[in-house]
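User: I'll paste a sequence; please echo it back and then give the predicted structure.

Assistant: Echoing your sequence first, then the prediction.
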Amino acid sequence: MTVTPEAGLDVVMDVTVTAHSSGGVGRYVMRLAEALRKAADGSGVRFRTVDVPAARPGTHGVPCRADLVLPDPFYMSIPLLRRIPLRRGTEVRSRPERLGRLAGVTGGVFHHGGVQPSCPAGWSSVITHFDPSGLLHPEWHTRETVEFAEREREMVDAGSSVLAISDWAARQAESCFGLPEGSAGSAPGAADPLYSPGEPDTGVLSGFGLRRDGYVLHVGSFVPRKNIPFLLEIYGDCVNCGFALPLVLVGAEEWKPDAALSGRSWARRIPVPDDADLLSLYRGARAVVLPSRYEGLGFPALEAMACHVPLLCSSATALPGTVGGGGLLLDPDDGDAWGRAILSLDDPDRVAALARMAASAPRRTWEEAARRAIEFYRRLVP
């Protein structure tokens, strides 16, 4: 990617959130930071990442490169002394000034990967917006994620600009936060370059008790917006109609999935594997099914299409824009349509057609996401 050098611009991205988010939030922040680091070279942008350890108590560090680490004030190392300033919020209130000194310049763009709200004085504050479901559907979320969403709204009300993970999420942010049309930017995420077509590692599959083309795959946490109970009900009907492939749910680690799978011998759960194993699980699947009710982007859809795997996907929220013509889009409430689509996976011609659809989908890149992010930063700091 070639970026024309322009006037210098300082960008600092807070990557603290990656210490306690192994899902889509953490992955997006890490991959965008990596891409911005590469794109900044020769672009007139000095890009750096920062970690704020005081904002992530109880964690062991961020899983990505942090160019800057904000030291704790001296009193944080004194057990008895620290109680008073912590209770009074002294450390939190002092972060903007300390971040400014750490950055060593008087202004630029401070991009919040999460919702740690501290921003140096004189800098343009940018939040990463994933989706507004925590505000619109708090019943789908834990207390922590609802608080995340509420703090995000507070930051926007206080003047932070919004850079979303998809075009759909950007428009939703404008509506939800009452922002002017076109004011929110977007830097759509992409599948990691690791995800690509090819043969699965048969050793990986056999280790999970699977064989190539012998299962249907779902990737995503067991949370309400993923619509997994609906999928289990429809899939069970298909099994009763003679569909013989098991359903494999990867990463369904929340909301008591084992209880939901009880009595369903055709369904099994695999805890989140490493990337190499997940690649083989994608490549070996007959198809990937994603009936989500709400997604700000949809990484599993991008990963499935990158592997040229047949994709049955919800038509809700950001997913049509993410999938385009790369998969079959289905109403997440239409059980009959999903049942027919799953049963059609017994037809080799239908599976081949779906695989061609996935292969024809344009491949998004993190380089493009970084380019769009830099363009957005320059709107804020010409």
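Confidence is low (pLDDT under 50) at residues 1-6. The radius of gyration is 22 Å.
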